[in-house]
Structures are given as structure tokens and as C-alpha cells.
Design the sequence.
């Protein structure tokens, strides 16, 4: 027997409808090139999104066509998200930090029809425009006074494009499984792969990000998404905030700058923010140097790569709760969140330090399992390491225009490429990416745990561990470190001594090499492939 409930489609236009009616007066504050503090309301934002929808409607696109963006977190990017998805097109967010060849590849692979871009990125885009013959035109997200000079045809100004358009537009009624946005993985191995989100997956993921022990966004929050809108839809913040009625603060191009972030937090009363560990380090460095506080900030969501304990403890001193989260582009991105901070009194200090650095428990909606080399499920005992697999309504079922992928080899599951343990309470600990695991004498060493410990040393700016061949053990860990400025005296022996007693003795790296700068991926993670190339001929001193 079927239930007798309405089958209302879960679409992004329902977010617009709700937010306009209920939270239309709530504010969105943005930093842009043409205005250091632009502010308006959700009501105005969605009115302008309809003006943009009217303009796009004149281009005679077909439903499902891709509209690309190259933009920072700001209000025009938000309008483009909504105008394209609610009209039945797909908003393809492109990471401007990708190499030019990758940008050309994904524009052509996605068959983008129009590209919206921040003026900052025009030089990058103009240089590759000739290699993207399918693109019909380029819209620069600025006012006429700030338009760059160019000889190219079909370069339009965003504000001029929408200026005369009507604020009324009837969003089409879409099936909830219609595609709404597209984001490519950074492609550290092979070409980037497209993850195509649907209206339904996005709305369900939005509900998940609102739950109190996940991102817990409410109408009392002032949310500053630092994670870029070109990286997995800024972890869903642009949808969750209008649903909850949270004020939004968008830092534009200055998202990596500690001083700007501290100023925005204090002047706009930010209570919650989300980003990768690097931006939190930048903010901490600024706070330490300036003596500034961040009194309104209650919690930060940290994910994208492992958050070192030292960063969490440093934020404790500022009264900020650090909530660790794990996920990936293929998971919209939310997979697990660690709400141990909310139950701190239940732990001893030592246990709390241990539990808070893992990535937490699966969010309702995401099912996880760990499997061995024969694809047999491993126990949740906190010890067995296995390949981490997931499934759920916001996990990608296959890549865009790619029929076969190893990640989808097991029907109904997605293989994340991470290696993890899960304890009996469901807390997941990511030990490595499959391609980064170090096997010493047949046993796995968690490079992430060693890196976390090493980063706790006050003279270490960044640390990475890679496996290198060893005649006796097969592989042994090599620790690669960038020293803090003014910490030239730090030696390898200092670091090994520091790690002694903090991690298993046989996990202590056999050697430490110092470099001036870490190679990073387009999403700000340490690029271990480049480190392995840099140290390709390396031999351990005792080898
Ligand atoms: P990309 O694959 O493009 O670098 P993603 O954001 O999709 O970007 O990366 C997902 C991967 O990032 C995960 O599979 C995992 O390896 C890593 N990751 C994400 N969050 C965490 C975390 N909290 N701790 C450790 N690793 C993480």
C-alpha cells in the first residue's frame, strides 16, 4: 500500500520560494572588486536572479545546457547559481586555480554554452577562449565602468545584461531528478571527472547540512562560507543559508586573507564559518600577530583535508568550537561530521583530543562501509583499515559522460579512494588516500596521523609524509617539512624527538627533509604526487 502524501518535487526553486516569503529581509554581504562591502537582502537577490533568468532566456538555450562560472564567493555568483538551476540549466562551477589545459578540457567536455566570470579571471579565460569553440559568449560579473578592454566579440557586462530585465519570471516546473549543477574533481590522477548534482540531491543535502550536529545552520547564524563556491557548491552553504534564513557573508577574492576574515567576522557578527585547514591557519596567524579576538564566532567547520589537533586547540583558546567534517566532490560533499565538541563533558581531556581529530560519524543519509582487498566488509572495531565505500541520495552514481569508472565497480556503492577505520560508535578515521598509503613491513602507517602530529610543532608551517622505498621494510615514511619563517634552526632530529611518544615508534619517519614551499592542488591540498616526483631518487641514509 502506498502512503497518501503529496509528491511535491524537491527543486531549488522551492528554496527561492520559501526564502523570499519567509526570509526575504535577511542580509547577504559580499566583498567584490567593485564594492568592498556590498549588502542587500535575499528578496533583492532572488529578484535579480529572475532578471538574469529573463536575460538568459533570450539566448534560446535548451533545458540541461551548461552555464559555467569562474567566480569568487559573492552575490552575483549566488544569483547565477539560482538563475541557471531554477531555469532548468546546469550551473557548472569551474575552479580558476586549475591549469589552463584542464580548464580548456572541462569547458569542452562539459560543452559549456556561456561562461560567467569575475573580472579577476578574464586574463586566464581570455588566454584560452580560442580553444573553447563551443562557448557562445562571456559575461563579466561587474559594472560597465570596470569592464576589461578586449578585442573579443560577445563579451558582455553582467550589470548591463540584467539592467533592463523584468523582476518577474516563472520558473519552469522541473522533475526533481533534473540536473542543476556540475563540478569537476581536481583530477590529481588523469583528467578531471564531472559530478552532476540534481535538484533532489541538492535539496536533500541541504536538509542534511541544517541538522544540529552537522553544520547546524539556523536563522540565528551569520554564516561566512570561505570554502569557494567553485568547490562543491561551497559545501552547500548557498542553499542552506536561504532555507534557514541565516545572514550570509561572502569574502570574495580575499578568502585566504586572515586580516580580511577577522574584520568580516567582527564587523558582521559571523557565528559560523566553513573552510579548509589552510585558511584557518591564516586566520590564526593573523589573530596571534594582531592580538585581535573573534568574539562572535561560535564554530568553524573544517574539512577538505585533515585538521591538525594543534589548530583545534588554538581555536579553543579563542572560544571557537572546531567541527571536523569529511566528504568529497562526489558526495555533495557531506559524508561525516564530528560533533564531539558538543558533548565534551563526556570525555576525559585525553580521550577528547583523540576523538575530535577523527572525521566523526556518518551523517544520516550516508551509509558507509570499509572493505578489504577481497571486497569483504571489515568490522567496526577502530583497528581494521579498509577501503571506504559510501552510498546515499547525494552520492554520485556515475561520472558525467563517463560510463565506466573503477570507483563505481561495486554496484550501488561509491569507492571514495580513502582508507579508513571505523570504531564501534561509528566514528570514522581517515588514515590515508589509497594512492598515498605507506606500507612498512606489510603494515600500514597513517601518513595523515604523522602529519597532524608534526604540524603541532610550533616551528612547522606545513608537513607531509610520503613513503619511499626501503631495502628492508619495503617502504618507510619520509617527512617533508616547510619551516615557519624565522625557524631556520629546526632540525630533523628535533622533529623526530618531538614525535617520539606521540605516535607509534615504528611510525616515526626515518628521515626529515626541509623544503621552501609545499606544492598544492587547485583545491589547496598538499600535492603528494609532486612530492613523490621531487624525491623520486631519494634514498634513506641507512639504505
Ligand atoms: P579533490 O578530490 O578534488 O581534491 P575533494 O574535496 O573532493 O577534492 O576531496 C575529497 C578528499 O579529500 C577525500 O576523499 C579525502 O581524501 C580528503 N578529505 C576531505 N575531508 C577530509 C578530512 N576531514 N580529513 C582527511 N581527509 C579529508
Sequence:
Amino acid at each position: 500500500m502506498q502512503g497518501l502524501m503529496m509528491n511535491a518535487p524537491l527543486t531549488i526553486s522551492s528554496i527561492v520560494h520559501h526564502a523570499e516569503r519567509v526570509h526575504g529581509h535577511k542580509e547577504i554581504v559580499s566583498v567584490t572588486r567593485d564594492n568592498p562591502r556590498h549588502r542587500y537582502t535575499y528578496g533583492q537577490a532572488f529578484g535579480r536572479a529572475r532578471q538574469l533568468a529573463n536575460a538568459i532566456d533570450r539566448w534560446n538555450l535548451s533545458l540541461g545546457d551548461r552555464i559555467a562560472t569562474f567566480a569568487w564567493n559573492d552575490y552575483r555568483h549566488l544569483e547565477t547559481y539560482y538563475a541557471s538551476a531554477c531555469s532548468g540549466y546546469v550551473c557548472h562551477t569551474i575552479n580558476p586555480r586549475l591549469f589552463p589545459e584542464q580548464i580548456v578540457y572541462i569547458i569542452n567536455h562539459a560543452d559549456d554554452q556561456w561562461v560567467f566570470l569575475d573580472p579577476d579571471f578574464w586574463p586566464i579565460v581570455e588566454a584560452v577562449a580560442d580553444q573553447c569553440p563551443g562557448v557562445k559568449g562571456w559575461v563579466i560579473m561587474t559594472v560597465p565602468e570596470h569592464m576589461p578592454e578586449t578585442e573579443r566579440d560577445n563579451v558582455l557586462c553582467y550589470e548591463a545584461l540584467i539592467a533592463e530585465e523584468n523582476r518577474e519570471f516563472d520558473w519552469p516546473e522541473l522533475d526533481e531528478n533534473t540536473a542543476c549543477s556540475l563540478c569537476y574533481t581536481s583530477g590529481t590522477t588523469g583528467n578531471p571527472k564531472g559530478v552532476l548534482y540534481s535538484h533532489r540531491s541538492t535539496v536533500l543535502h541541504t536538509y542534511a547540512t541544517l541538522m544540529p550536529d552537522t553544520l547546524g545552520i539556523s536563522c540565528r547564524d551569520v554564516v561566512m562560507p570561505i570554502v569557494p563556491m567553485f568547490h562543491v557548491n561551497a559545501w552547500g552553504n548557498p542553499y542552506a543559508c536561504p532555507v534557514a534564513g541565516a545572514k550570509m557573508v561572502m569574502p570574495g577574492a580575499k578568502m585566504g586573507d586572515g586580516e580580511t576574515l577577522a574584520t568580516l567576522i567582527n564587523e558582521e557578527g559571523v557565528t559560523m564559518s566553513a573552510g579548509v585547514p589552510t585558511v584557518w591557519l591564516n586566520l590564526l596567524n593573523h589573530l596571534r600577530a594582531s592580538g585581535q579576538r573573534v568574539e562572535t564566532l561560535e564554530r568553524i567547520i573544517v574539512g577538505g583535508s585533515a585538521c591538525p589537533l594543534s589548530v583545534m586547540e588554538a581555536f579553543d583558546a579563542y572560544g571557537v568550537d572546531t567541527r571536523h567534517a569529511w566528504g568529497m566532490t562526489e558526495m555533495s560533499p557531506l559524508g561525516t561530521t564530528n560533533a564531539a565538541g558538543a558533548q565534551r563533558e563526556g570525555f576525559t581531556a585525553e580521550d577528547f583530543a583523540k576523538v575530535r581529530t577523527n572525521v566523526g560519524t556518518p551523517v544520516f543519509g550516508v551509509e558507509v562501509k570499509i572493505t578489504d582487498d577481497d571486497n569483504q566488509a571489515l568490522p567496526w572495531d577502530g583497528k581494521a583499515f579498509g577501503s571506504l565505500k559510501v552510498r546515499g541520495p547525494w552520492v554520485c552514481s556515475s561520472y558525467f559522460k563517463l560510463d565506466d569508472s573503477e570507483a563505481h565497480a561495486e554496484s550501488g556503492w561509491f569507492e571514495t579512494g580513502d582508507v579508513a577505520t571505523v570504531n564501534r560508535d561509528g566514528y570514522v578515521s581517515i588514515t590515508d588516500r589509497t594512492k598515498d598509503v605507506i606500507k612498512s613491513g606489510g603494515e600500514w602507517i597513517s601518513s595523515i596521523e604523522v602529519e597532524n602530529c608534526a604540524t603541532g610543532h610550533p616551528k612547522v608551517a606545513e608537513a607531509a609524509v610520503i613513503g619511499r622505498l626501503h631495502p628492508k621494510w619495503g617502504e618507510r615514511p619520509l617527512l617533508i617539512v616547510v619551516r615557519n619563517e624565522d625557524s631556520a634552526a629546526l632540525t630533523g632530529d628535533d622533529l623526530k624527538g618531538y614525535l617520539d611518544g606521540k605516535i607509534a615508534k615504528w611510525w616515526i619517519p626515518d628521515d626529515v627533509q626541509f623544503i621552501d614551499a609545499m606544492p598544492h592542488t587547485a583545491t589547496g591540498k598538499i600535492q603528494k604526487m609532486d612530492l613523490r616526483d621531487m624525491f623520486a631518487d631519494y634514498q634513506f641514509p641507512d639504505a
